[in-house]
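Notes from hallway chat w/ T.B., transcribed later so I don't forget. T.B. wanted the structure written out for a chain they're using in a teaching module, and asked if we could keep both sequence and structure tokens in one place. Agreed to drop them here.
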Amino acid sequence: MSVPAAPLDAPPGQPKKAATAAWIGSALEYYDFFIYGSAAALIFPDVFFDESDPATGTLLSLATFGVAYAARPVGALFLGHFGDKLGRKKIMVFTLMLMGLSTFLIGCLPTREQVGTLAPVLLVLCRILQGISAAGEQASANSMSLEHAPPNRRGFFTSFTLSGTQGGQLLATLVFIPVAALPEDQLLAWGWRIPFWMSFVVAVVGYVIRRTLDETPTFTQQAATEGVPKMPLAVLLREHWADVLRVVAAALVASVSTIFTVWALSYATSDAVGMDRTSMLWVGALANLVALAAIPLWATLSDRIGRRPVFLLGAAGSAVTMFAYLWAISTGSYPLVLVLGIVAFGVVYSAANGVWPAFYGEMFSTRVRLSGMAIGTQIGFAIAGFAVTFAAQIAGPDGDNWSAVALFTAALCVPPVIAALTARETHKVPTESLGERPRDDAPDRDKVTA
């Protein structure tokens, strides 16, 4: 069937408004998510776990960081289903409110000293809610910005979601720098709670921004003509199962982020290396600041030369640069750590990170785009989230086997490279034709003529 182009044109200003909403919402959402990562590496082993065994306490604390990633696939099934039935906007608002609430509650939790083993149990429950929220956040924001964007600039506009993620991570790091500088007794008594309580502002600001955004033209057109599928998941698995698997494999590149953000921070500040906590937080802050500039540049390049080459550069390059970064930490040389951290995370990883919102989203049709992105990415991210726990085990009893962790991270970059090599190049495909691949045995309604 033929889909008219005119109704799919976004109203003036909506592409920028959608990108801005995606940026700010993701920044606020992932501020919540990443302050947990900093706390899991620096605070929670002492507050929620057994202080008599620091190594086990650190391992258990890092495992709670991965719990949210385990909850993500479940959240993706639920939120993806309703996002493709009810629209992108409703999911964007819901995920932000859920993340703000769950993060605020973490700041209110009693410690292990106060209530015993109930403390880590409550911590895990709040972390699960964070994971469910994050499962729908990026997929809904990516779908919203992609479907509002001009066809020849989808990479640039969708990259605002990931720029927002890096902005949130930067904000989380900057908030933790003065908190981490508090005297130890004040830090463990009340200081660590402040970043979590600030999530109340996250929820209010995010709601105000997102509730005024229009639904996307392609989703509106889909609902008004063919209608939305009753069971998006069934359509997704029937028509796009290979792309779902491809996104799962490609999403493993997120392991680079979790290793850099959590395990490397824990390793650098451990007794094995002994680097200053605040100094290492500044490495993350400056790397994220560079990423804020690098992500839209890589995305713009992908609008010109394609998604695949840019993503491949980021995935393969990250396998190499993580070796250099972890080696630099092992030397204890702060200038070396700073430079290589910025190169590895701020520049090279940003190539894959900046282009994947368009790269993954363009694999699916409007009917199942949010489901496809949510389920595919969240399964991959779940594995990436537990990469921190595996890294802590691989690093050995003293936590100093950085080369084994670097090899493990490089191995996790191989599936993304294979996924990208087998994917279609889609940067020149019209938005209304994305994900629609005519087949001889396909129903007429699946054949879209631009």
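Follow-up for T.B.: The longest helix spans residues 54-86. Might be a good example for the class.
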